Amino acid sequence: MDSLLDWFRPFRSCVVAFSGGLDSSVAAKAAVLALGDAAEAVLAYSPSSLRNEVDDARAVAAAIPIRCHAFPSREMDDDAYAANDRDRCYYCKKIRFADVCRYAAERGQEVVVDGSNADDLDDYRPGRRAMMEFGIRSPLAELGITKAQAREIARRWKLPNSEKPASPCLSTRLAYGLRITEERLRRVEAAEEFLRTRGFSPLRVRLHADDLARIEVAPEQISRLAEPNTELAEEFQRLGFRFVCVDLQGFRSGSMNADF
Length: 260
Prior knowledge:
By secondary structure, this protein is an alpha/beta fold. The chain folds into 2 domains: 2-156, HUPs (Rossmann fold, 3-Layer(aba) Sandwich); 170-257, GMP Synthetase, Chain A, domain 3, CATH 3.30.300. It contains 11 helices and 7 strands. The strands form 2 sheets. Strands 3-2-1-4 form a 4-stranded parallel beta sheet, with helices on both faces. A 3-stranded mixed beta sheet has the order 5-6-7. Helix 5 (88-107) runs parallel beside helix 6.
């Protein structure tokens, strides 16, 4: 933890690109401990955000505590982003980081950081290209701090989201090439909420062409989900899914990136 605080101390001030997730919360807490009121958080939200995420993120920021400025992001207006090719995350981050860096410049903040950890460097993350273009720094990744280590730091600092699982944006649930629309995002969100209220966790509902819903749950829960279930079938039909299947490999983060 000391090395993380030492990373921030040479700066006069900073802005943390904040999501309310574990990693950005650890970065925000470290920034506050090192820089006090000279640190602040910026939270971007859009239709790709889970509807409760903004309120949850504000609550985490208050618990840290760090000043948090929230603003609506504009990536849904960008056709390249909506087209949903494998560089989708790049287009999103380019728009969001442009706004974050503009805010930081207007406030006279010296550095902008995000919560990427060392594990993220081994995954397919086109958004990191946008970060490099804007000069965004990633203290956790630069110090070699993994997700597990970030979680342990969060526990020691008693952050309220120390046990929170990863919660990527809803666009990650749509198969590449399937156009991103707010209607599709809301359908996926409603389907996941339906399963969550019935005790399935962790889980993802992945949307493929022809309105096929592919459900991922924990391996030990697959057999329960695969049983004939009229309620589930009717709810997914009501939400507009034509076909529903259960992924026999179970829940795994980033499964849409399996081919590259």
